[in-house]
Amino acid sequence: xxxxxLRVQAGWKIKYNLFxxxxxxxxxxxxxxxxxxxxxxxxxxxxxxDLSWRPELDVNGRYVLVVLNTLEIFNPKNNTIELDVxxxxxxxxxxxxxxxxxxxxxxxxxxxxKPYRDSRILRNRGILDQPSESLRVELQIHGLNxxxxxxxxxxxxxxxxxxxxxxPEISIEILEKLVKNGCKKGVKNKALQKLKSIKNRDxx
Length: 204
Known about the structure:
By secondary structure, the chain is of the alpha+beta class. The chain has helices at about 100-110, 130-140, 145-155, 160-165, 170-180, 185-204, and strands spanning about 10-15, 40, 45-55, 60-75, 80-85, 90-95, 120-125, 125-130.
């Protein structure tokens, strides 16, 4: 079995590889089985590329390439970082019967694929800052309200307060509270800059 040559770009790590340099035929169809032919991950970009052949062992099948978003999850039982792959919401799906077309697409994706931003608020790698992350999720689902804003200012860390400042419905009143009671100097300065920007805009 000769593996298919690929120009692997910096940052991409091959986790699993049975992608061979042969085309499907009655003689070689045994090489087109299993849940995956190729799996590649880019840690800092939070992306995983998976290549399979569907239906398995069917000479009339096709290559199925998917790009998936990933998140890091800390497992306290064995003190390791595990990968949470969002199989239910692929970023991209691409199919072809041609091995050379798939090779071109793989190499194109490794060059051009933009990172997936992890929007969670983390305390350490893979570990949620649970209080502030809960506030972020509540803000995302329900939007701004007085009670939530007060809790973000009194209980939240600088990351959730920074998200609050960037909220499209932020008011002068909320910004003034953050200028006075923000948890860190950087938050207070950012709130002050936005407050000045809004006041200057409204004065025109």
